[in-house]
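Homework help board

Subject: predicted structure for assignment chain

Our instructor gave us this sequence and asked us to write out the predicted structure in token form, then describe one feature. I got the tokens but I'm not sure how to describe them. Can anyone check?
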Amino acid sequence: MKKLMMILGIASLFCLGLLSASFTPAAKADEWNEKTIVTFTEPVEVPGRVLPPGRYVFRLLDSPGNRNIAQIFNEDMTELYATVLAVSDFRPRPSDEATITLVRNGSAPRFVKEWFYPGKLHGHEFIYPEERGVELARVTRQPVRTMPSETNGHATNGHAKASTETEAAEPSDRAEAMTMEPSDEADAMATEGSLEDIDGKLAQARETTPPADSQAVDTEEGATDQLPQTASSLPLLGLLGIGAVGVGLALRFASKRAA
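My token output:
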């Protein structure tokens, strides 16, 4: 009887090990590219384009050398809308949810300023084309990260050195922070341009501050509802089946030994 209990215990541990193996890789991949599912109920501006209302995927380019290149896809990741350069951002306290900060731009669509993955202090501040960034800073009275307009705010060719605007700014005291649900799976996708070209563009980024005579624009604070998990459970069911077979074989072996 003791041998039977020991065999059952080993079989149970085996099943638990299979369950752990089924969850761990997806979690690690999710943290690596910070994939986040976002729902916008109104048009929202990102560098280079305005996204219509809908559901999108924000994720980082799969590059170990540069963790500040964001990609924006449609929900099923069959279309890449933008490859956006960013710079590292920081917040004093982490959040349990992904956060995307939207800044109100008068009567125009709000624009994405920064994106933080849940549990992390460091996030990503989006870089806008210089001409557009200056206009956004003037209207919103918030510093906006910019680079020369010929780069269009996304991954293209060209190199320049970093520079910083010295004019002081008095940023608006509120920006809308939308909390989003991180995705539970990761997908490898092709990108435009080489990593060397992209790294060169990040050196062009600088912070553009609004002129002193800018008028403040009200912003709002809010949060979106949490979105449902979308991962398939088929791999997990397969592993449970394998575990059940293992338990059955163990019981059969134990019954023969007892006989």
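Reply (TA_rk): Your tokens look well-formed. For the description, you could write something like this. Residues 15-29, 156-174, 183-196, 212-237 have pLDDT under 50 and may be disordered. That's the kind of observation they're looking for.
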